[in-house]
Structure to design on (1419 residues):
């Protein structure tokens, strides 16, 4: 079955490349990007439509602004299209930047650039490792002849950046321990292999691989070497063996509030709140909906930590937030079309993810391992596997997933078409109904005149029409 | 492929609703329920059939008895049908009771009521938590728009009751610690989500989800909070680090015998032998075959414990029995049609499950976790995935699974139809054969007379017939 | 979908039985086995073809030698065919021997015999347990009515021999503790059940089950009883809690070199280098490619151990080698057709497997368990799930897998047919093209003469042909 063996990750981007070709006319592009600007702009714009008497220079400026926004927001398809004709090294830089942002499901090189800036602010050694990881993961995907569209969307890079970063974060050998680059390169080159293998499995349920390859490979590296290793020692992580000291009067509300951006930063292993703030900007540029859900997720994680009597230090450090951030983004508009039901589902998933995060962290600490993003992966996969009979929860086909705003447009369009098809069917049925009635009337009159063999034929015709009708219903 | 994405749990009950509509005539109902009463009644009845000279009043009384039994035995479809027209709150009570019994694969509200009585006898706080769990799991399934038939069969409730019960059993905060109801409600409301997600996976192999959602969620709660938690501390469970003291002379045979009902009670976390006895009655009402296999399973678990040098306390406490009980029921007539081969398979599965139970208990104790019903789930799923070339082991399609007796009727009917179809084919083949012979004879005579072009046509016809025949074979 | 439910293991051998029937003419057999002798012989043979003036007696001798080699090399199909007419007990011996060799993917009773000799050299008690395991696994498969072809290929025995051997190896009760035979028989009889269940899952991705049943069952037995058990105590395995002492000056190069055959021996749990050497002979007899990859794999494992700062004792003891041996064989020509790309992939897989081996050993030591061959299974399955767009990496359908040399012939034949089909299509296209041109010319001339209704028909014909042509392209 070659048709089903197509990798999920490759599917995600075939659409991208397709749409990029249809974007010659930038007007269409603007239309598609409109919802992006919904927060501050579209309301104004709607008003504009009702006020055509406005000055044309004002309208022109606005149109310019919208076009300018369309170039940097969303998945920057116009830029991606332009990139295709550039030199391969430049292209790889684009792919690496998109890969850096894809950790947060953002397919946008500008966001990637901002994220790298945030990483450099946090720790230059970590940022270097992250860059090396993304680069080699992308190169490895090229060597393994993976789908070019998926590579160009950064779908092979995001596991690489996490592998590189987190191996540096959890290394006990200190910063600028250059030997670390060897396992880093080895593990990031293994990313596309594990991604491809997992995609073969997950595609059966039309599910993405998320950051599972990163989780597998970083845990593999950490547990293979361990704390007691001469070459690549890891940070010592041990299970809790006594009651933590929790005094509510000692709570620091400033730190608690700061834990929200810190939680977003912890997706990349960063505990600097400024870095977290920069990441939020990177998210906002591409998709405000994603940014909003990231913030909600981080807040939910913090609340869950308080509810489950977690030590305050862990909450301040953002350890309760980062998984919820990712889970909330994934369910809230990314893989489900954003409706109020899926928004609630995203909130539920974030709570579930926080619970699961605590559980996995406790289990993994027995092996000296951190929780990584296992809780996010498992909870998001669980919530994506749900089947319901309500129409408010619509899971997008993986090949159609782009970013929440565009997904929503796709969902609306699909619903509209469905409604139109229904309407058409209804009308057809009514037409057929009326015709049958006419035929029956003719039949009745004919039977009155003479019960001939001719009427039998008409009768049969009427019966056939009626059957056809019931079939359609 | 929307057809394959239909949830397994929903499938289980579409049949129920279908059959319930065809049960207007209670005579048919009685026919279907006959095997239920096979143990004490049907033998008599067969004798009756041979003794039509018996007094009509006796016969009438017997028929009345059978009808009366048909109302409370099996899955009480007549009652379920009647319930559909009642007030929604009454319906929910019915669903909750069915959910309580579904832990043992019994779809019968009366059994559920008896089981609740047993729980109250054991511990009222536990029974309350179990009720809350079932109730909220059912409500959550309603909110998530799950299949109404599956909800009505209690298929969303049974994980809820186990979650509620076991969270109370393993809580270290003592009875009547009301805060526990919060995680209880949260976790039982997560049950339908996990059920639905797992069903999406398992349905690919036409497998049920068993109690996997309960296992996942209770382990998640226990390990997320752990023994050292301020709000929700768990019982301390630690791995064995020294040789247990086993002196065969100290064996208490009364306790050993009592471990059989205790093992059945431990399915719901109850160590009271009376509670276990009450559960056996609940099983017997719905399906004697299920009850028999439960007893066999518990005994096998006890024997396995002795064979693997387990501490006597664990065996007396029923910890070796409850997984085997469930595994033996599942394989022995529930998901396989009951033949002597599947009966042996059920015994083998129970032994395998006991072994696996010991293994899982040892592994999970490292994380402070009990074995829950993981051993049952894993061993039963393994044994349901077997493929063989023998006809004695027939796995029922998940949509046709009801209870052992009815499953057996389905199996027999199917076999009968198969045999009839074979017989028909054989006869057709013989007819065709004889006709070919006739044709050939004609041909021979014709060829003798004059080797005409006409014979060629007949020859061709004969050849076509022969080909057709070989195709059919 | 009955078609997809066919077990993977059964598929592997349907081909065997099919080919064995076509082997009446031993000349064909020799042709198929030619690549086997590629290393020392085929070069000579090619030279022979160019030197037909050679003495006929020399040629005759060579042909005799080739035929003789064909009888013992590869999968000994001729012998297998002959065996089918023998007494059942003799057949079972054949199946047991093939099962012993199938651990290394070798379907050859002679290799199995040599392997048993190696085992006896190592430890007679272990060899006995291995034999009992293989025997009962095969018998159990017969009882469970598994596919006869798969049984005859030893595909139900290889897990049995590993279960028997490793249970004896890891038992703490000492050699000749006869009670051990009970769990040994129980566990080896459970092998076909677990195999069949896993095959139901893996066949969905056309993957083999490898030694997963062995891993599951031995871990199950070891953790179910544990070190602190009265009847079946296990060797004490504990996690590392301090830095190992690694002094490069203390390195013993002789032992390091010896670790290569020891690594091959450790596939069967043997640490005797001579035993490992005997196993290499057994591999070489059946398939030199397999033997070469086994050696490469063992060397890679040793190097990886040095790179990851493993204690020298572990490396000398072959613990770093055996998983890489199996992984390298599986990827290098067994399940992928051998090209230089898959050869590199096999090397990469061996490195990945060594890393994974260290990780799994550290994790499992927490439960007192050895790594078994989990690392091999997981890494090989991962590398077999990869999908790429390159033609150099061709995964054989599971039903066509035999041994590297024959797989390669199959691959070449397939490629040749593909190329021929392409060529044919091209020619047809050219023919059609030229004919269209002719038709168009006719049309033009006709139109010149008289624009008749007749030309319309020709025009239509031309259009249809052109459409047909574009469809074909």
């Amino acid at each position: 079955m070659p048709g089903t063996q197509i990798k999920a990750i490759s599917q995600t981007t075939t659409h991208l490349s397709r749409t990029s070709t249809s974007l010659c006319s930038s007007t269409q592009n603007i239309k598609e990007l409109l919802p992006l600007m919904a927060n501050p702009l579209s309301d104004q714009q709607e008003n504009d439509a009702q006020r055509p008497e406005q000055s044309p220079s004002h309208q022109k400026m606005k149109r310019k602004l919208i076009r300018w926004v369309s170039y940097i927001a969303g998945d920057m398809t116009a830029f991606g299209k332009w990139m295709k004709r550039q030199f391969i090294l430049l292209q790889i830089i684009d792919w690496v930047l998109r890969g850096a942002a894809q950790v947060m499901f953002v397919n946008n090189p500008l966001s990637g650039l901002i994220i790298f800036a945030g990483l450099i602010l946090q720790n230059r050694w970590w940022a270097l490792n992250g860059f090396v990881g993304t680069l080699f993961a992308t190169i490895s995907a090229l060597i393994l002849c993976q789908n070019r569209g998926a590579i160009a969307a950064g779908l092979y890079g995001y596991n690489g950046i996490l592998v590189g970063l987190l191996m540096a974060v959890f290394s006990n050998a200190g910063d600028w321990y250059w030997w670390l680059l060897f396992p880093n390169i080895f593990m990031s080159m293994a990313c596309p292999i594990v991604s491809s293998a997992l995609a073969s499995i997950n595609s059966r349920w039309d599910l993405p691989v998320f950051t599972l390859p990163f989780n597998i490979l970083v845990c593999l590296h950490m547990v293979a070497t361990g704390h007691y290793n001469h070459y690549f020692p890891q940070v010592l992580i041990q299970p809790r063996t006594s009651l933590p000291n929790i005094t509510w009067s000692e709570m620091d509300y400033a730190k608690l509030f700061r834990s929200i951006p810190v939680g977003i930063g912890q997706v990349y292993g960063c505990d600097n709140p400024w870095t977290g703030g920069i990441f939020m900007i990177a998210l906002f540029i591409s998709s405000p909906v994603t940014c909003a859900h990231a913030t909600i997720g981080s807040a939910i994680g913090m609340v869950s930590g308080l509810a489950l009597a977690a030590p305050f230090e862990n909450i301040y450090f953002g350890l309760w937030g980062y998984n919820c951030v990712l889970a909330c983004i994934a369910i809230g508009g990314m893989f489900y079309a954003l409706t109020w039901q899926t928004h609630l589902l995203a909130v539920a998933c974030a709570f579930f993810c926080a619970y699961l995060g605590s559980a996995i962290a406790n289990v993994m600490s027995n092996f000296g391992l951190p929780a990584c993003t296992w809780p996010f992966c498992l909870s998001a996969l669980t919530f994506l596997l749900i089947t319901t009979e309500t129409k408010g929860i619509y899971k997008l086909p993986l090949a159609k997933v782009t970013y929440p705003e565009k997904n929503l447009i796709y969902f609306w369009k699909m619903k509209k078409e469905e409604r139109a098809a229904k309407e058409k069917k209804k009308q057809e049925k009514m037409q057929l109904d009326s015709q049958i009635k006419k035929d029956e009337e003719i039949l009745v009159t004919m039977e009155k005149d003479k019960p001939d063999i001719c009427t039998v034929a008409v009768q049969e015709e009427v019966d056939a029409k009626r059957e056809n009708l019931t079939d359609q219903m």
